[in-house]
Specification:
heterodimer; A: 248 residues; alpha+beta; Glutaredoxin; five-stranded mixed sheet; 10 helices; 5 strands; B: 162 residues; mainly alpha; de novo design (two linked rop proteins); two-stranded antiparallel ribbon; 7 helices; 69% helix; 2% strand
Chain lengths: 248, 162
C-alpha cells in the first residue's frame, strides 16, 4: 500500500469514526434521558408520600373526606376506633395481638365494629408511614385491605427504615395476590393522599397526638381508652353500655 | 506465537484497517440494550414508577418468579451482558484491535449465548407466564440483531476478513 493510499484510508477511517461517535453520543443522551426521567419520577415525582394541602371550608367537609376502614357490621351499636401509624411499633403490637382478639370476641359475634383511621406520624420521622397508609388504601381497591394492613405491620421492621419502600410494598401486594399492575399504578400516584391527609387532620381535631389511639363510641359517648390492651377495651365498652361511670 | 501476537502481527502487516462496520452496529445496539435492561433493573429495584407498557403485560412478567434467578434479577444479567458486548465491540473499533480475532470470537460467543438465554426467556413468556413484556421482546430482538451483526466475525476469525 502506498503512503498516499494509507493517508486516504486513515482520513476515511477517521471520518467513519466521527460519524459513529456522533451516533453513539446521541443514543447515550436519549438513553440516559429516558431511564433517568423514569427513575427520577419514580423516586421523587409521582408517588405522593407526604400529606397534601386540603382546601376544606368546614369541619363537615373534613369529616366527609376522612374515611376510616370498617370491619364488622356497619350498623353495630358500639364502635372501636383506632388512629394508627404503620411505622409505629405499638400499632404493630395492637394490630397483631389485640385486634385479632377484638375481631373474634367482639366484632364477629356482632354488636361491635372496628374502624381504622390513618394517623402517620411524619413529624417524628416516620417518613414511610404516609406512603404505607396510601398503599393500604390501594389494597382496599382490590378488597384486601385487612390482609394488607396486617402484612404491613408484620413486615414493619423490614420496610420501616427503607429509603424507597415502594418495592417492598409492591412485593407484599403480590404476596397476598393483588393485581400488581393496578396496585403499582395506584401507589405511584396521588390517589388517597387526600383521604389519608384528611384522616390525620380529623385525628388532630379530635386531640390525637400519638398512636395507637383507641376510642370507643357507644351510647352516644366517645371515650378514649388509655391502655390499649383487650381487657381495658372490653371494660370500657361494658362501662359505657351499662350506663355506669367511665373508668377511663 | 499467541493469538494476540498473531493478531498484532497481521494488523501491522496489513497497515491501517478501516473500523469494522459490524462492530459499530453491535456497539450501538448493545448501548440501546443496556438502557432497556437498565430501565427494567431500576424498576425491579423499586426506583421507577409503574412500568411504562403499551403492549403486553410487563407487570405480570416482572413480578413473576422467573424475573429473578436466585437473588439476581434477570434484568441485571441483561445489563451486565450488554455492557460486556458494548465494551468488547467498542474496544474492537480502536485502531489497535480492529483486526482482533479474539474480540471477534468473544463477540460471536457472547451474542450466541445472549440469543440462547433470550430464547429461553421468550419461551417462558409464551408458554409458562402467558404474558408479554415489550421490553423483554425488544431485548430479544436486539440480541438477535447483535448476533447477526457478529456473523462477519467468522471471516475475521478465519483470517480472511478485516
Amino acid at each position: 500500500m502506498s503512503r498516499g493510499e494509507e493517508r486516504r484510508q486513515a482520513r476515511e477511517s477517521g471520518s467513519d469514526m466521527k460519524k459513529f461517535y456522533f451516533l453513539f453520543g446521541a443514543v447515550a443522551v436519549v438513553g440516559v434521558g429516558v431511564v433517568g426521567f423514569n427513575v427520577g419520577s419514580g423516586m421523587f415525582g409521582s408517588a405522593v408520600s407526604e400529606p397534601i394541602e386540603l382546601d376544606l371550608a368546614s369541619d363537615e367537609e373534613l369529616v366527609a373526606l376522612a374515611q376510616g376502614v370498617t370491619r364488622g357490621d356497619p350498623d353495630a351499636a358500639v364502635t372501636i376506633v383506632e388512629f394508627g401509624d404503620y411505622q409505629c411499633p405499638g400499632c404493630a403490637s395492637f394490630a397483631l395481638q389485640v385486634k385479632p382478639q377484638i375481631e373474634s370476641m367482639l366484632v364477629e359475634p356482632g354488636g361491635v365494629k372496628f374502624v381504622y383511621y390513618d394517623f402517620p406520624l411524619i413529624s417524628i420521622g416516620h417518613t414511610n408511614a404516609f406512603l404505607a397508609a396510601r398503599a393500604s388504601r390501594c389494597a382496599a381497591d382490590q378488597d384486601r385491605y385487612w390482609e394488607y394492613h396486617e402484612s404491613l405491620f408484620r413486615n414493619q421492621a423490614r420496610w420501616s427504615g427503607a429509603s424507597t419502600p415502594a418495592g417492598a410494598f409492591e412485593n407484599y401486594a403480590a404476596d397476598i395476590g393483588l393485581d400488581g399492575s393496578d396496585f403499582k399504578a395506584c401507589l405511584n400516584s396521588d390517589k388517597y393522599a387526600d383521604v389519608v391527609t384528611a384522616n390525620m387532620r380529623l385525628g388532630q381535631r379530635m386531640g390525637v397526638t400519638g398512636t395507637p389511639t383507641v376510642l370507643i363510641n357507644a351510647n352516644g359517648q366517645l371515650r378514649r381508652v388509655n391502655n390499649y390492651d383487650y381487657q381495658s377495651i372490653t371494660s370500657a365498652i361494658e362501662t359505657m353500655t351499662s350506663g355506669g361511670p367511665a373508668s377511663n | 506465537m499467541t493469538d494476540t501476537a498473531r493478531d498484532m502481527a497481521a494488523e501491522a502487516a496489513a497497515g491501517p484497517v478501516a473500523p469494522p462496520t459490524n462492530r459499530m452496529v453491535i456497539t450501538l445496539l448493545a448501548l440501546i440494550g443496556f438502557f432497556v435492561a437498565s430501565y427494567l433493573w431500576a424498576h425491579n429495584a423499586g426506583l421507577t414508577g409503574p412500568i411504562v407498557c403499551g403492549v403486553g403485560d410487563c407487570a405480570t412478567v416482572q413480578s413473576s418468579e422467573y424475573a429473578t434467578i436466585g437473588f439476581v434479577p434477570v434484568s441485571a444479567i441483561g445489563v451486565l451482558g450488554y455492557l460486556v458486548l458494548l465494551g468488547l465491540s467498542f474496544a474492537g473499533l480502536q485502531p489497535a484491535h480492529r483486526g482482533s480475532r479474539a474480540i471477534g470470537a468473544l463477540l460471536l460467543a457472547g451474542s450466541a449465548g445472549g440469543v440462547a438465554f433470550s430464547a429461553y426467556l421468550t419461551y417462558l413468556e409464551a408458554f409458562v407466564i402467558h404474558a408479554w413484556c415489550q421490553y423483554c421482546v425488544i431485548s430479544a430482538i436486539l440480541i438477535t440483531l447483535i448476533f447477526f451483526a457478529s456473523l462477519p466475525e467468522v471471516a475475521r476469525i478465519r483470517g480472511s476478513g478485516t
